[in-house]
Amino acid sequence: MAKIGTRMRGMQQSSIRAMTARCQELDAINLAQGLCQVPPPSLLVEGARDFGKADHSYSPAEGLGVFRDAVADRLKRHSGLSVDPSTEVVTTIGATGGLLATLTALLDAGDGVLVFEPFYSYHLSALKVLNLRPEPVRLAAPTFEITEEGLRAAITDRTRAMIVCTPNNPSGRRFTEAELMIVSAVAEEHDLLVISDEVYADIYFGSDPHLAPATVGGLGERTLTISSLSKSFSIPGWRLGYVCGPAPLMSTVRLAADALVGCAATPLQEFGARALRMGDDYYRDLRATYDGKRRALAAGFTAAGLSPNEPEGAYYLLVDCSAMGVASGVEAAEVLLERTRIGTVPGEAFYLNPPERPYVRVCFSLSNDVIAEVVTRLANGVL
Ligand SMILES: Cc1ncc(COP(=O)(O)O)c(C=O)c1O
Question: Model-level pTM greater than 0.90?
Fold first, then answer.
């Protein structure tokens, strides 16, 4: 057997994918992975008839102009963010590809990157794969607020960047202007890059529109905004995303995206551009759909005696399982799987240090029938 490199040493299959595999084994309902079971908009499904006529060659590394124009229009319309589609947008293989290209382009091995804990576990994997140093900034449960003291305390002499995710997976928080002003002040003082994951920008509850970090304080000049079509259009399998930011940074991100993967799927960029131009009604309906699912699933957990949070955005509940008398989220997820055949992610998957409470995360991007079945199973008893 040939000797292999050490880069992946210590990395394991994510506990989200591990739970998905166990759910398949046990024929359990999978609330662990954000599988996105809401159907895609009919415009995309019907558009597939034109697939044969689409461009099937490589696109430029930064993506087709038609896609980048649609991204720029959309960011202006939804977030008030102005980007030049010719120099400030790079099309990527999902937000995941966007994050990898950004980190590869702008940071060196050993650089410190602040991550607000709890964090989306793939942020941590990306840092590990690239030999970057995760520096956790604990956001205390149950409010998960950014504080100036907490943020300052986490900074080291190696810190070069921070990752912000709003609306947040897993906490459901949408960071406020006051919190983002703290981010802006600290980032400026320490000359940090801000990498903003906004894949859930269209999924929020309440009337306030999405607040893009790049529009707050002085963040515009140091923020790379990353998003994708996965969640907004229920097409995570298309792997279509984008990164936007100041032109001098984006020229390097473009080089990295090209070196890593060449380009994103060209024909899908054409259809993706159509989706990005859908009207406000589409987004209103999407939010109403998710709001209904959120309420139905939360009611089921509450009726069962557990304590779900009330997410402001994204499509996950964090459920405090203290009432089950368990010592950890890992134990809570095991007991839930055993008693109800429902797969959840232990809160520990989103932390480097142990969480304050035995949390599990559940996804509510499911059909209403599946949610009804979950509620029935919970009603049969989890305590
Ligand atoms: C916060 C966050 N960022 C990124 C992603 C992945 O996005 P994409 O499918 O565009 O790679 C997810 C998927 O669950 C997510 O929750």
Answer: yes
